[in-house]
Specification:
CATH class of chain B: Alpha Beta
Largest sheet of chain B: 6 strands, mixed
Number of strands of chain B: 10
Number of domains of chain A: 2
Structural class of chain B: alpha/beta
CATH architecture of the largest domain in chain A: Orthogonal Bundle
Radius of gyration of chain B: 17 Å
Helix content of chain B: 25-40%
Number of helices of chain B: 10
Radius of gyration of chain A: 25 Å
Largest sheet of chain A: 2 strands, antiparallel
CATH topology of the largest domain in chain A: ABC transporter involved in vitamin B12 uptake, BtuC
CATH architecture of chain B: 3-Layer(aba) Sandwich
Strand content of chain B: 25-35%
Number of domains of chain B: 1
Distance between the termini of chain A: 70 Å
CATH superfamily of chain B: P-loop containing nucleotide triphosphate hydrolases
Largest interface: A-B, 21 and 28 residues
CATH topology of chain B: Rossmann fold
Oligomer: heterodimer
CATH class of the largest domain in chain A: Mainly Alpha
Bound molecules: adenosine-5'-triphosphate, magnesium ion
Helix content of chain A: over 70%
Distance between the termini of chain B: 41 Å
Amino acid sequence: MADFIVSLLTGLSSAAAMFLVASGLSIIFGVTRIVNFAHGSFYMLGAYIGYTLVQAIGSTAVGFWAAVLIAAVAVGAIGVVMEILLLRRIYRAPELFQLIATFGVILVIQDVTLWVWGSEDLVGPQAPGLKGAADILGKPIPEYDLALIAISPLVLVGLWALFKLTRWGTLVRAATQDRQMVAALGVNQRWLFTGVLFLGSALAGLGGAVQIPKGGADLLMDFNILAVAFVVVVVGGMGSVFGAFWAAVLFGILQTFGIQILPNSTLVLMFLVMAVVLIFRPWGLLGMPETLGQAHPGPPEQPLRPALPRVRILGGAATALLLALPVAHLVLPQLVGAFTLVLVIEIMVFVLFAAALHFIMGPGGMVSFGHAAYFGGGAYAAALLVKFADAPFEIAFWAAPVGAALLAFLFGWFCVRLSGVYFAMLTLAFAQIAWAFVFQDMPGSVLRTFGIADEFGAPLKITGGDDGLNDIWPSAWAGTRIAYYYIAVGLSVAALWIMRRFLYAPFGYTLRAGRDSPLRAAAIGIDLTRHRWLAFALSGAFTGLAGALFLFSKGSVFPTTLEIARSFDALLMVLLGGVQSLFGPIFGAAALTWLNDLFSVLSYWRFLLGVTIIALVLLLPQGIVGFAGTRLGRRLRLARPEEITA
Amino acid sequence: MTAPAGAPVLGLTGIDTFYGRAQILSGVSLEVRRGEVVALLGRNGAGKSTTIKSIIGLVRPAGGEISFEGNAIQGLEPFQISRLGLGYVPEDRRIFTGLTVAENLEVGRQPRRANAPEWNHEKLFALFPNLAAMTGRLGGLMSGGEQQMLTIARTLMGNPTTILLDEPSEGLAPVIVEQVAKTILDLKAQGLSILLSEQNLHLSTLVSDRAYIIEKGSIRYEGPMADLAENEEVRGAYLMV
Ligand SMILES: Nc1ncnc2c1ncn2[C@@H]1O[C@H](COP(=O)(O)OP(=O)(O)OP(=O)(O)O)[C@@H](O)[C@H]1O
Ligand SMILES: [Mg+2]
């Protein structure tokens, strides 16, 4: 019994940071309708700033808590700066742009943090006055845990009072439901939004600062908390602070008990609970269905039409060039080096990845933020087959698209029921779970609980965790650089062509109809969910194919192939190229792979990339291919006269 | 009052409005004078709501001019237009369903204005007696008629000089429509100017001084309401379905 109570208390204390971060995310989303991906970064900044302040003034109890509060306010101020400089300009932009822009902020904050505090993990100092352990039913429990348990309800009551008892809170709640109406009643929402960004960011900062005595500060905090916060918000219900509270408490308790049953299982348990909740309540415990009609109608989209002759000629020329490149390499090795072939293989891998993502994103309107799950998932499926079943290359290779399709089939079942940002957050959460699965080598731990372990009793290495799986190469016939080049180019061009066929077939038109008017599509008897599900699985298969090409070109696979940053890379490629064009992902992938190559030699390349992304979102909202529709593009005859947009 | 009775307070000249590429309004011009109730009549989809949204700034007209109390307001943000004393009562009421009646009123509250009657809870509850008994009730739990009263009351909390009323009779029982008519006449008596978008000819005839008829985004008829009530031909051409 005493053990149970102590576990319960530990669980409640670990709910604190989750609740603080998730409630801030939820509040910001409720009013601005922007999912702030930089929210995890604010949490991280809270920890780092808090750490520095505690070093400076935190030797007394008063000083410590003052440091924590000042850190929260400082992070709130950073949120305000982001709102004024960036968000204000993109409130009317499509959701995707907003998400990408806040992703740019993540990159910038990562490098700024690295630059200011260095790459060492910081071990947090203990809180003065709360260094000891309290005695609960004869069991010790850290006093600081008790303080953390008290913080969540205090903040919850404070938020309740703020929202319920002040005019500002009333306006925020009204704006959460209907921004336009609030504006039409004479409320200047600029300050509402700025205030909300301050509050939400400060909550994230507070979450980061209060957990320093337990977890310190490190550079992985941003993405780690982000997935957790998403799960909490999705389960609690978007925009609901009380929902976030209950979900955080639920997961906090689940965590402590889950670890006792199955170590390293936290994220998987969260996934299972989230799955169960979403089956019964698609909008979360206390969430309300997304209100239709709040979306900003953009300019009408051009119908899909066969490409213009000049564009076709360009496409044909590019294909011919690709096919001729190895010949050039043989004839003129000093001009076309081996590195060029390697770079082109890499570009084709990402072109395929981006096109597969675009397949559901452009025509289907499903913006997946976790497509790396199928890229890395496919690669791991093939690699595991080679490692543990000695499968030959010819079979293992195809296991990647099949495995990825199955994974997408499973995750997709939950995701395709939702739309917009709910869809985005859920796909990201699933991807993070897949990442944790390989990163923490979940199969190894599971086997150990069944008594299957190595001779020392340690878990067997299945996915290999951080070390990944190595030494996985194609068969001899495919192993030369030129042979593999032709395999990569041939398969990706074929896959691109097949995807294009799908989009011009009734299947593609149905998807577009469903994206533009779900109600009408349903009214004429289209089973939209099934179409979306199928499209998602197909996209997963093509992504897995890209993963297979990647795996056998590198000879190894690491958990980084599934990480959030990888999913964002693919999104960026689609965005860079322009969402509304089938050629977009091709240009975007080529441009980004090249940019990455260019920046990666610099020490603060994330900062540069982040700034570039933000600049692109602000300056080129149509993407690179959208440029074809501008006056210049028209002069080059890349678009029809009526397709001019600028 | 800044402008004398009868002087124009709200004027639209040649307003063109688009949704995407579809032109919804073509050259709409109309005028509301001080203390007047003006009806904007038209069938479903004629462009009444779009006209009203163009005035309050929820939709940006692509061309034309809108003046309110001597200010050019086209291109301003909705909150700026509203703060000049122009109240907007939307067609689908848009009550904040998660907020109580009192909170809904609070959202509408704006500082008092020299040239407009000032509203507070007591005065509003005198006008809408059944709201008084339910200040703590959630907006989402009210009947359609109660919501209509609340949405008007909420706009009045902004102490407007002029009100845009978009189809207040929509979906209401005849008794309640009579109540709405009485409210409009009350407001008129307090010196407010009103632009009333309606399909309900009965209500318009009861309260309006003048009328415009809009059809396919253009004004087709303009004249005193009394004349229109007599004019079978025009009514048949533009109003009966
Ligand atoms: N958000 C929108 N996007 C595209 N078209 C719209 C939009 N809102 C209205 N329309 C179209 O504009 C036209 C005019 O609509 P409006 O709402 O102004 O009509 P109305 O006269 O108010 O009709 P009702 O009496 O039904 O309210 C209609 O054809 C309608 O379909
Ligand atoms: Mg209307």
